[in-house]
Amino acid sequence: MDLSNLVPIPVLLPLLAAGITLILARHPAWQKIVSGTTLGLVAVFALILCLAADAQGPIVLWVGAWPDGLGIVLVADRLSSLMVLVSSIVTAIVVIFPSRRDVSDSADGAPVSVFHPTFLVLTAGVSNAFLAGDLFNLFVGFEILLFSSYVLIMLGATRERVRAGSTYVVVSVLSSTLFLLAISIVYGATGTVSFAQLPERLAALDPGLQLVIQLLLLVVFGIKAAIFPLQSWLPDSYPTAPASVTAVFAGLLTKVGVFAIIRMQTLLFPDSPLTDLLLVVAILTMLLGILGALAQGEIKRLLSFTLVSHIGYMLLGIALGTVAGLGASIFYIVHHILVQTALFIVVGLIERVGGSTSLARLGGLASVPLLAVLYLVPALNLGGIPPFSGFLGKVALMDAALATETPLALLAVIAGVATSLLTLIAVIRVWQRAFWQDRGEDDDRVHSLRVLPRIWVVAASGLVGITVLLTVIAGPLTDFAYRAAVDIQGGAYTVAVEEALP
Amino acid sequence: MTPTLILAIAGGVLIAAGVYLLLERSLMRILAGVMLAGNGVNLLFLVSAGPAGDAALVGADPETIADPLPQAMVLTAIVITLATSAFLLAMSYRSFQLEGHDEVADDVEDAIVRRRAEADLSSEAYVDISDSDSESGGRDDSESGGRFERETGSRAEDEEAR
Q: Is B75 in the same domain as B139?
């Protein structure tokens, strides 16, 4: 079988399953089985794609085989297939969590039946954004994932969620409008939106116009990735959603933005890395994000701020524009998707066991040792404690930054170390307050994992296990990331797309 | 490629009006802004399509037809704008149902953090080891930045409403 026919499967399969789960709206148990199996299958296909892309270079499919490159092209190179693989693993695990009670939370008669179809559409959108071979298809992928995220963030439409969701929707709609504007300018200037043809034609443009296009796209993707100064929507909107939804948003959606920045910086504007600008932005994102986290008294908000701050690390690697920097960034993205999702999932468990996510109310959770371990391991990982992948990723990034030997890169390294330490302070404060603080005398709640369905504990342990496993497979994974970076810098993408032209 | 000046100006005006409305707090005005700005961008797509031409049908002379690709993209964009408008309308109506108006409110946790900063208190995540007795319960209102006052206050309001 031709491998290129596998490329659209991560998009098509979830869309198909979304339809099936919609038909099964009155049978929640079946919905869960269908979406679980689908996402598991997607993960398997993504693994095959990933291995194939590693063995034989970018796999390209011209959908519909229209003549002269008229149709849509999907490309799975090392980077995008790795992203699809990680995202499908995360979604396959997270889909286990939402239960009727969790999704509907406090609202009466919340439409639980829409959760699974929307979640599957979200997955399809994320995969489509990763695999898209032209700007407009990337836009469509963004829109698919954004629309399902609008629904998911306002699930149940309670007062708090409508308020938080409004901010999110308006900001996202604005960024989509800007994206469309950027596409129309690109098309007007070059006559194409294909990633394979754009580099050559963009390079022929007036440098001023090139810079306008680049900055416009950077703002668009910057809003999605929540980089400074476009980050303030994120900590306001993410924490109010159900825990499992926040987990997948925090893990995946911002990374789609980072992925788009990588594509744009390496593929469309390889000669204009804007290193200084991006380094300054990366430093400010790291520091302001983590300082925001230190001021929070609510765990989900605190983690949302650390999410913003750690986007800065990925940006740092991209800003350097070197193979080492890119490879380290790709490794860090993989690490961060998994760790951040695991943390939010565990906070969901804490919320169930402790009855709150506010640090002023939690306490004494250390009486549940398994929960304590589940929190502490990814928390230390995020803070960058040595054996874990967070440490390895940060060291790789700093190595890459030091190799460029510019004063700004040195400053970025210092900011990175400071952020890492401050992250540790932030997550350890949660550890102290939620797990070790004495509880108020009027609090007679008995802490026990029994309030949780057993499969949740198993799935959360599995996810935390995967984050630990990242340390074990760090060697092959970094090698893969560096091969992906070499791929990107070497222009394998363009060559493969043109060769596959029907 | 010769762009049409009128289309470009119309697109610019629509986007400017859209941006103005987007800055409002009421969701209905934001919705109007989104629609205006979206249509403005759609017009710019037509500008980027170049000079007008015949309908792009199979069999037409490729030399005289208009560029069909931007039209396809605009069509997609229009569909997306329609969906966005429908969703924003529903959201605005839901907000009206819940609050009696459709204005986007400030974030509650933000307000707490801000109030603590104004009162020159340490952050809620801060653990004071030397004075753990008064801190441990966290019930002191000045320490919590009004969190408990707010919650008991809103509870009283709820009961009143009932």
A: no
pLDDT at A111: 52
Asked whether the beta carbons of A363 and A439 are under 8 A apart, the reply is yes
DSSP-assigned letters across all residues of A29-73: HHHHHHHHHHHHHHHHHHHHHHHHHHHHS-EEEEGGG-GGG-S-E
Do B44 and B90 share a domain, yes or no?
yes
- In-domain check, residue B16: yes
Q: Does B59 reside within a domain?
A: no
ipTM value for the complex? 0.85
> Does B19 share its domain with B42?
yes
Q: Which of B22, B112, B126 is the closest to A174 by Cβ?
A: B22
Q: Does the residue B157 lie in any domain?
A: yes
The answer to which of A320-334, A373-387, B59-73 has the lowest mean pLDDT is B59-73
- Binary contact (B112, A295; C-beta < 8 A): no
Statement: residue B161 has pLDDT above 60? no
How many beta-carbon pairs under 8 angstroms link A with B?
Answer: 130
- What pLDDT digit, counting tens, does each position of A71-88 carry? 788 888 889 999 999 999
pTM exceeds 0.90, yes or no: no
8 A C-beta contact, residue A438 and residue A364: yes
- For the cut 50, the answer to whether the pLDDT of residue B132 exceeds it is no
Tell me the C-alpha distance between B79 and A318, whole Å.
Answer: 34
Q: Which two tokens stand for residue A183?
A: 């596409």
Contact between chains at A167 and B80 (C-beta distance less than 8 A):
no
Whether A114 contacts chain B with CB within 8 A: no
**Spatial separation of the C-alpha atoms in residues A477 and A499, rounded to whole Å:** 28
Residue A59's DSSP bridge partners are A76
| Residue in this structure with the two tokens 């329609």, named with its chain if needed | B82
B95 plus B112 within the same structural domain: no
Q: In 3D, which of A329, A305, A306, A307 has the Cα closest to residue A317?
A: A329
Q: What would the mean pLDDT of B16-45 be, rounded to a whole number?
A: 91
Rounded to the nearest angstrom, the gap between the alpha carbon of residue A12 and the centroid of all alpha carbons in its chain is 20
Nearest residue on chain B to A159, alpha-carbon basis: B98
Q: What is the DSSP letter of B77?
A: H
Structural domain span for residue B38 = 3-53+65-99
B86 and A CB contact within 8 Å: no
* Co-location of B146 and B86 in the same domain: no
pLDDT at res. A5:
84
Considering the domain boundaries, does residue B43 fall inside one? yes
